[in-house]
């Protein structure tokens, strides 16, 4: 069965691009445009990976990352943080909140797929 990726991204074009790329690479992806909806979806569908844009319309993505990381306990789902801010401070704050990895925009799609595969333990 294909690993499920929850994509929390408020920009429809980015969400579609990430979803289509991951789906074409053997994943099954679902999207959410807000942090609140993303948190609810994560609890409901139990994805294998969560991709979170750090800048969301309703909350800071780092808050969502921290909430999901603490709620999951021992069986933590890997979280990939994505941000247009490319500075070291942003990366460190995302990792400190509980993200498993950080990717800066513009996203290199091949690298996104490689990292998603690494995080869920799937080889190409």
Describe this structure in words.
With 124 residues, the protein is an alpha/beta fold. The protein has helices at 12-24, 35-45, 61-72, 88-97, 109-120, and strands at residues 4-8, 28-32, 49-53, 79-83, 101-104. A five-stranded parallel β-sheet has the order 2-1-3-4-5, with helices on both faces. The longest helix has 13 residues, at 12-24. The mean pLDDT is 93.
Write the layout of secondary structure elements.
Layout: E1 4-8, H1 12-24, E2 28-32, H2 35-45, E3 49-53, H3 61-72, E4 79-83, H4 88-97, E5 101-104, H5 109-120
Please write the CATH class name: Alpha Beta
Helical content class: 40-55%
How many structural domains does the protein architecture include?
1
What is the molecular shape?
A: globular
CATH architecture: 3-Layer(aba) Sandwich
Rg on CA atoms, Å: 13 Å
Low-confidence stretches: none
Biggest sheet character: 5 strands, parallel
- H and E order: EHEHEHEHEH
Number of DSSP E strands? 5
